[in-house]
Input
Amino acid sequence: MAIGLYIAAFAAVGAVLPYIPVYFESLGLPLGAIGLVTALAALFGLIAAPTWGVIADQGVGARGALVSAALLASAAAFVVAAAPVAIIAVLAWIVYQASFAGVSPVLDAFALDQVGANQHRYARFRVWGSASFVVSVIAVGYLIQQTQLHQMFVVLLACLAACVLLALQVPAKTAGPARRSLSGLRTVLRTKPLMAFIGAVLVVWSASSMINGFYSIYLTALGTPAGLIGSAWALGAVVEVPVMLAFPALAGRFGVNRLLVFGAACLLLRAVIVVAATDPLLVVGTMALHGLGYALVLVGGVTYVASKAPLGSAATAQGVLAGVVFGLSSAIGPGIAGVIAGASSVHSMFTVAAAASALGVVAVALAVGWYARRAAAVATAA
Output
């Protein structure tokens, strides 16, 4: 059941993520406004993701949270597609982001509940999402190229309907214990190793989202066909698939901490190449590095957070992580990127993103290294 949900959910992401900035541009929004819209939607997602996690942990369960989130997202997506003016589309998009923000953390917690103590096997579930994203983003790219941009919403709504149907099949209760008050969220926020790591991940994803928020627009400016733009996003997901399949073996060989640092370094290298390159094919090719870094940091991050989450707060902890990854970082990154791109150029903004990526590598290395040193000191003292 988790596999089917990952397929449907990430097909929905692939249908809209690469093309929604272009859609807003077609509605007449300038670059600065597109960045602001992305930032506002992400801020609502930041609040919504851990809220959905708390709702799931406190007794509604994964099924109730997933069904509710997918239904609300479906209604909002329909309004975005049918909106007669830009302002209505923008407001509906913010509601969509806040609704869909509940799918990822609750689904991750459900998948982790299914694998039990062997948390590295989570990657074997999540990889289906990346594979689905590949198919969706390529198919929608060529569908748009052959028809019109609006057709992406047809695919999006079909995927969300599949999410609802599959979520209804999820067991009402999972094996994990539930924390029945808001103390679960407070406990997560007071877990220092967990929050130090999430703070570091915030820097990494903010830098990455600065590039991704304007990546399709930049490729369009370079004269890249819509089909190739879709293929660029698919390339990243294609790389994710074998990396996620190999993650359990890689984690056993090198450790999750090292993989997290290496993944952040891959995102840094991608940013540097985007800054230096002007050939559309080379810029498209950087998505391979993005896929490698994304897979390692995302799967490693989910696994790391699961290992540090307080008992009874699994979905809440994943919700906080998702709020940072898909919420706050997506607000900070595109928001800052839109201001810089509007004042100077997209290329100048990419340079700032590369500098932020370098800071992110250092932050992740310090966060996971600090926890490892503290754990060793506690063990020695004991």
